Amino acid sequence: MRVLIVEDSDTLRESLELGLSGEGFAVDSAADGLSGLKLARSNPYDVLVLDLLLPELDGLNLLVQLRDKPDRPLVLILTARDGVEDRVKGLNAGADDYLVKPFAFAELLARVHALVRRRYQERSPQVRVGELCVDVLARRAQLGGSLIDLSSREYQLLEYLVLRRGQIVTREEIEDHIYGVNRLPASNAVDSAVCIVRAKLGAFGRSLIRTKRGQGYVLEEPGA
Amino acid sequence: MKSIRGFLMRTLLGGAAAVIAAMCLAVYLLAADSLEAQFDRNLADRVQGFASVLFQVEDKVDFEFSEELMPEYADAETPAFFELWRDGQGVLERSPSLGKADLAVPFDASSDPRCWSAALPDGRQGRFVAQRVEVHHLYPEEGPDRPQAARLLVVVARGQEELAAAHHGLLLRCVVFAALLLGLIALIAWTAVERALEPARRLASRLDAIDVYALPETFDAGPLPRELAPVAEKADALIRRVDGALQRERRTVADIAHELRTPISEILTTAEVALRNRQDSGLARKALSTVRNVTWRMGGSISTLLRLARLEMGSESFERESVNVGAIVDEILRSLGSLAQERELRVENRIPVGARVDGDAEALRIIASNLLGNALYYSPPRGRVACSIDGTPLGWRFMVENDTDNLAARDLGALTEPFWRKDRSRTDRNRSGLGLALSNALAQRIGLQLGFELVGSRLRASLSNEAGALILPVDAALSPIARDSA
Q1: Domain assignment of residue A99, given as a range
Q2: Which residues on chain A are in Cβ contact (under 8 Å) with B276?
Q3: Are A48 and A29 part of one and the same domain?
Q4: Which of A68, A90, A119 is a domain's end point?
């Protein structure tokens, strides 16, 4: 899943980037409102973690300007402003969640996961497709009750395909959601990763993830 | 004055008592005088009474005294006395009460009654009257043989018991009247004072009802007497000041909370992320370094806040000495040289190194450092920063000017508020937003005024002293030094 952090505190932004990357998110960041708006407009983020008091363009204005973007990310406001009025303003401007500083990183992570689930209309953190069970909180996948050994990138790919199960997912969309803007993948990286994941899923995997020639990939329960 | 009621009651009753006492004394004296005059008239009438019962036949004077008619002259317990002296012949008659004694007789008395007080023969205090009278002829035919009318000196005396009793009664009435009058005045005064103090109590009650967390926009004291209107006006002004101070305090507390939230988040997140990656020792070291830096920065802000609080409480003491402000400015500008160079600023220092003012060296250093630091930091690149010091009619004025491209006149009042920054995002962690607040508090404590004004596109900070001398070195006084650096 891809997250954009717009936060003017260098220390906090770097820590969040590091922490969320460590949790398997593809993370981009911006130190001011204008850069953040530019990134948010040009990339398909799942979640936007947004500070309110930002140089150049404040968070509320950024939200308003992002409102018209189709498929805009879900927004978690992360701010030191704790007044009810501030929360109301933020939520009314289009935010989906509001977290006041100081916060526990675990809580922020849980909220980001909840937003991701909401984005893909999942109620439970455990998503089942036939014998495959993906736990997005624990970041692990099981096949028939056995843990599948996946690298971080492979897990990200599987999780994204599972969350978009039944839909054709293009290579570009996969790249956009599992790689940040600063880490452009090699031209066949997605195809290689899909092959590896399929192989790790065995015979079930080959029927689970199918290639749609010229379009991309689709993950759906065999026989569906 | 411990109590208005006590003071008014004491003053009113004291004054009333003095007036009543004087009035009663005057009445008493007048009445006593009148009583005495009446007493004397009564004695004089008695003399006339004696004169009317004296008859002269030939050369002999007859006196028809009757104890029945004049029982008071008999030898009673408290008798009256009389004595009749015929000129040149001695005592003609004396009252039985005198026995063989004589009254003190003023032989020079005239035909007008003369009254005096003296001891009576029986030892009592008495009142005397003496008058010369001419005796009537029993046969008053005129003729050359008619003897010359006899002249007698009549002396009458009686005890003053009745007069003293009348005096005593009069005095008693005066005292009772005065006491009653004073009591009545006390009652009226008490009622008047209570009614006069009622608006003050009402005012106190309205003040007491004010909720400090919801101060009214204007203080409604209700209808008040003219004398209390200024108190209500001052109370209203005080409420405005308290409201302003509370709002400033709330803003400051909110600002402090806001200022601390981000660094605390930085520490927390850095620590939590490091803990999630325990095996990464490089990350742990970086996290510790970040935590140290952020904590250090927070500590600096907290120290400044504590110092501001101490300054507001007046618990810091300052020296008064001759301070080489020129040397201080020179030293500060040297330490800021790299910043000036980096931002390509033109810095003009017009303060001679030997320029001296009276004040606290450390406080002046902090203020000058903040003013110059801000000027260099916030001036647009390639701008101009200038500092100077001038003598004024009563003191001196230290000025720092810099170019500004984002300040408006409405911002000037907020410059000395803690944590105020033009950039609301407060992204710049190198500036705490407390420097000018600290400078302003220091300036106030050492008797200086810190002010700001916009002169075109330049911000001018002035630190002035209205009662202190500026001492310039002799050569500098003649031609001020300007040391420019770029």
Answers
A1: 2-119
A2: 19, 22, 105
A3: yes
A4: A119
Check which CATH number belongs to the domain holding A84 and give it. Answer: 3.40.50.2300
Residue A58 and residue B424: Cβ atoms within 8 Å?
Answer: yes
Q: What is the pTM of this model?
A: 0.63
Does residue A174 form part of some domain?
Answer: yes
Tell me, what CATH number does A149's domain have?
1.10.10.10
Does B426 contact A19 at a Cβ distance shorter than 8 Å? no
Q: Which pLDDT score, from 0 to 100, does residue B482 have?
A: 47
- Same domain (yes/no): A163, A184: yes
Q: Number of residue pairs across A and B with CB atoms under 8 Å?
A: 76
Domain-ending residue, one of A119, A135, A158: A119
Chain A residues touching B423 at Cβ < 8 A: 55
Pick the residue with more confidence: B257 or A182?
Answer: B257
- Cβ–Cβ below 8 Å for A8 and B283: no
**Residue ranges in chain B whose pLDDT is less than 70:** 139-146, 424-430, 474-486
Contacts of A9 in chain B (CB under 8 A): 262, 265-266, 427, 429
In B455-467, which positions are buried (b, 16+ CB within 10 angstroms) versus exposed (e)? eeebbbbbbbbee
Higher-confidence position of B473 and A209: A209
pLDDT digits (tens, 9 = 90+) for A6-16: 998 888 999 99
Angle, CA of A96, A99 and A100, to the nearest 5°: 145
Nearest by CB to residue A102, choosing from B264, B276, B287, is: B264
Of A15, A80, A82, the CB nearest to B269: A15
**Cβ contact (<8 Å) for B268 and A31?**
no
What does the pLDDT read at residue B300? 86
- Predicted pLDDT at A24: 84
Residue B480 is predicted with a pLDDT of: 41
Q: How many residues does chain B have?
A: 486
Enumerate the H helices of chain A as residue ranges: 10-22, 33-42, 59-66, 84-92, 105-119, 152-163, 171-178, 189-208
Same domain assignment for residues A107 and A133: no
Contacts of A120 (CB under 8 A, 6+ apart): A163, A164
Answer yes or no: do A108 and A14 share one domain.
yes
The per-residue pLDDT for range B419-451, each reduced to its tens digit, is 877 776 665 666 778 889 999 999 999 889 999
Q: In angstroms, rounded to a whole number, what is the distance separating the alpha carbons of residues A18 and A1?
A: 15
- ipTM score assigned to the predicted complex: 0.78
